[in-house]
Amino acid sequence: EFATIEFDLEGGVATLALNRPERLNSFNEQMHQEVREALSVVEQDQAVRALLITGNGRGFCAGQDLSDRSVAPGAEVPDLGSSIETWYNPLIRTLQRLPMPVIAAVNGVAAGAGANIALACDLVIAARSASFTQAFCKIGLVPDSGGTWQLPRLVGMARAKGLSMLGDKLSAEQAAAWGLIWQCVDDDALRSTATDLARHLATQPTRGLALIKQALNQSFDNDLDTQLDVERDLQREAGRTEDYREGVAAFMEKRAPQFKGR
Ligand code: T3D
Predict the structure, then answer these.
(1) How far, in Å, CA of 64 to CA of 145, rounded?
(2) What is the mean pLDDT of the chain?
(3) Which one of 127, 175, 184, 230 is CB 3.0 to 4.6 Å from 190, fit for a cystine?
(4) Helix (H) and strand (E) counts for the chain?
(5) Cα of 114 to ligand 1 centre, how many Å?
(6) What confidence tier does 59 reach under pLDDT thresholds 50, 70, 90?
(7) What average pLDDT does this structure show over 133-145?
(8) Which three-class secondary structure state does DSSP give residue 163?
């Protein structure tokens, strides 16, 4: 039913593949709209316990489709702030809010907003031939989609500035070595590694994982005292889940736990 993405639900795993390969899966409005619809299904369907995002073809995502942005001399330039407000910011907020692990399988170049959408996911796995580029500076723009927030946190200010002001391609291996992403794997192993990981996570205590995500996503903004309070509150909530009971019971009975995501 979608034209610019492929979306599939199977056994607790939702898979969203960006599917405009001839444009390196860059975003036009239709793709924004379809991604939004798919993520709203993910958000509302209690059966979904992990989300995998990837790209079809040789790219992961090249950010905004710039062919929608070329302006004839004298014509009015579109308001990019409104594009960010309408599309990119809500997308990043949704990824951060989803109460389940979100995995990005970066199959090729991730550029501009495409790089930062990947970095907004919880676990980023990239193919060895993939790369990350903060391409914005090359066309006079600022890293968006959370880039200026994520980069200093993930790799420190010096590297954040170098990446943002030079816009060079950072190889997947270097990205993993710097701690920008979780893992770099051989190209032919990417899809299976990412799918195995998503399937594994979909069998785990989903609410506990969602609370871990919530705690870590706010940790850089809190002092230790505040974060200790956050941990207390989230642990209280985790302790009330069925999966916690099951985890302890299974441990005591020396058997494998059967988590239900509740
Ligand atoms: O506007 C707003 O709403 C504000 C929000 C902005 C968010 C943003 O993401 S701004 C940043 C936009 N993205 C870029 O600036 C990246 C532009 N692309 C590139 O720099 C390079 O294409 C890549 C580094 C991504 C990949 O390089 P390479 O050498 O592997 O591939 P290529 O040959 O450059 O690209 C392949 C094709 O995809 C090519 O088309 P062709 O010549 O085969 O017909 C190229 O034009 C097309 N393509 C790549 N990126 C985009 C694109 N077409 C439209 N928009 C793109 N972003």
Answers:
(1) 11
(2) 97
(3) 127
(4) 11, 10
(5) 10
(6) very high
(7) 98
(8) helix
Name the residue at shortest CA distance from atom 4 of ligand 1. Answer: 80
Within a 10 A sphere around the Cβ of 116, how many other Cβ atoms? 26
108 lines ligand 1 (CB under 6 A): no
Q: Which domains does the chain have, with CATH numbers?
A: 5-201 (3.90.226.10), 206-252 (1.10.12)
> How far apart (Å, rounded) are the C-alpha atoms in residues 19 and 59?
10
Is the minimum distance from the CB of 163 to ligand 1 under 6 angstroms?
A: no
Of 33, 34, 28, 29, the C-alpha closest to 7 is 34
The CB of 58 under 6 Å from ligand 1? The reply is no
The answer, yes or no, to whether any atom of ligand 1 lies below 6 A from the CB of 7, is no
DSSP 169: P
**3-31 burial: b if 16+ Cβ within 10 Å, else e:** ebbebeeeebbbbbbbbbeebbbbbeeeb
Alpha-carbon distances, residue 106 vs 145, 154, 239 (angstroms): 17, 17, 35
Quote the longest CA-to-CA distance of the chain: 74
The answer to whether the predicted template modeling score (pTM) of the entire model surpasses 0.95 is yes
Pairwise CA distance, residues 18 & 10, whole Å: 18
Among all chains, which residue has been given the structure tokens 């959408």? 117
